[in-house]
């Protein structure tokens, strides 16, 4: 029986409070999600927090999903009146378009200021999202220099930090914010697979088993067959993990679990998504 995944380190509740206060001072909110799991990496309270404030939706780690799937997500979000920006905060792909979008918020802000007889100022944007989705990396890209810490671990940014170095843009880096309770364990497993929650929250074996089951459910079992030469179709995720451990790792299940997760996270399994736009819902509505 897999243990329940919960992860809510102390710095997050403080950051959430401060973030809500700071939101009053910003012109535009950049909401970053993980392109591999745009739904599971969505914080359900974002809309309530930001109200009518302009928001730019960013699906980062675009390099980790296929071009075809990017098109599908783009179409899906468009149905809901949203325009997602796909970015790779590591190599900068898509960041120019994002700068442009922030720029247009700037002209609006300054038009209002001009009407009130005030001098123009840089646009103020806050970058929010789940932990480890690439918020700080994106800020470094937007500003073209390594100004805030960014690393492969959830919970790197612990405090809100204004970065004011450009005449055009002032950015507020925020710690990853996650709901107090992860109501959907299905989503929690996806977050764990993608390292968008800290590894203290889960057992590698549970998460690796969840990943195998998920890939099979998504019809992506060929990825596993290609990589590990073992077909998961006639077995559960648990059996698959056990068999693979026997064949390759001297029955060391922890080791095979780590390997599976590592291979996915490093992109060795290819551009694999863990979510697809919920098409049935669109057809029904
Ligand atoms: N492959 C890939 N890796 C990325 C991308 N963006 C960020 N990363 C990597 O993801 C890891 C997390 O990046 P951070 O910028 O620290 O993420 P964060 O959202 O600020 O994380 P917290 O501050 O912990 O909430 C780093 O190792 C980045 O190099 C991307 O577009 N593609
Ligand atoms: Mg950060």
Account of the 3D structure:
- The chain is built from eleven helices and six strands.
- The chain has 285 residues and is an alpha/beta fold.
- It has two domains: 10-173, P-loop containing nucleotide triphosphate hydrolases (Rossmann fold, 3-Layer(aba) Sandwich), CATH 3.40.50.300; 203-274.
- The chain has a six-stranded mixed β-sheet with strand order 3-2-1-4-6-5.
- Strand 2, helix 3 and strand 3 (85-87) form a beta-alpha-beta unit.
- The model has no long low-confidence stretch (mean pLDDT 92).
- Magnesium ion binds next to helix 5.
How would you summarize the topology of this molecule?
Blueprint lengths: L9 H13 L5 E7 L11 H5 L4 E6 L6 H13 L5 E3 L7 H21 L7 E7 L5 H9 L17 E4 L4 E5 L11 H9 L10 H14 L3 H8 L8 H12 L4 H13 L13 H6 L1
Parallel strand pairs: 1-2, 1-4, 2-3, 4-6
Antiparallel strand pairs: 5-6
Helix pairs in contact: 6-7, 7-9, 7-10, 9-10
In short:
The protein has 285 residues and is of the alpha/beta class. It contains eleven helices and six strands.
Number of domains: 2
Q: Name every ligand kind in the structure.
A: guanosine-5'-triphosphate, magnesium ion
SSE ordering: HEHEHEHEHEEHHHHHH
**Unreliable residue runs:** none
Number of strands: 6
Question: Can you tag this structure with a few keywords?
Answer:
285 residues; alpha/beta; Rossmann fold; 2 domains; 43% helix; binds guanosine-5'-triphosphate; binds magnesium ion
